[in-house]
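We treat protein structure as text, and this decision shapes the records that our systems exchange. Because each token names a local backbone shape, the row as a whole describes the fold. An entry from our holdings is shown next, in its original layout:
>
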Amino acid sequence: MRTLSERISIFQNSDLYPVVSSEFCNGRSVCEIVSGIAAGGAKLVQIREKNLSDCAMFELVKKCKEITDRYQMLLLVDDRLDIAMAAHADGVHLGQDDFPLPEAKKLAPEMFFGVSTHNAEEIDKALADGCSYLNIGPMFPTRTKSVACGALGLETIEELAKRVTCHFSVMGGIKEHHLELLTSKGFKHIAMVTEITQAADVEAKVRQLRQLMKVSKNV
């Protein structure tokens, strides 16, 4: 089992942050998509499933863990601390209405916890609660997740990012053509859903996106 410091180190050295939901996999299995992501060189992946039974979710995360272990990746689970703990995943991504972070840390002190944030108050609270990382978004309009605030836009997220004192990712409607701009603005961890999960060749797509981020970073 990895320690929290080891998990933080892997995240720190990551770039692309793939998020996988079965409803956006074009009929392919989540494990097939995760395998492609792993082969493409990503350092982490998040499993986000809102409609599976507890048993089905547990079995899915266990199967994904076998893949991520082979590639020494981080496996994060959206919302479900219980599933993540039972399947020995590396972390949990918590929304604003999910299990409270301070209590989650008591139950799983070595777990890598992320928090979704959409404004300055939520960022400040996530930092005060001791999140391992946080996500700011949505940056652009997106159909993969509904939030009351709507798309924040690049300028707002740039301002919000100035408040952040831990690692953070950005997410929401981000496509390949956004990567050069976002990387040039200093965003290091960029989360994407459909741009990856709906690609005909997931492995090739992940390699391409990671290369674009690397090139833009070095320009």
Notes: The chain is about 45% helix and 15% strand. The radius of gyration is 16 Å.
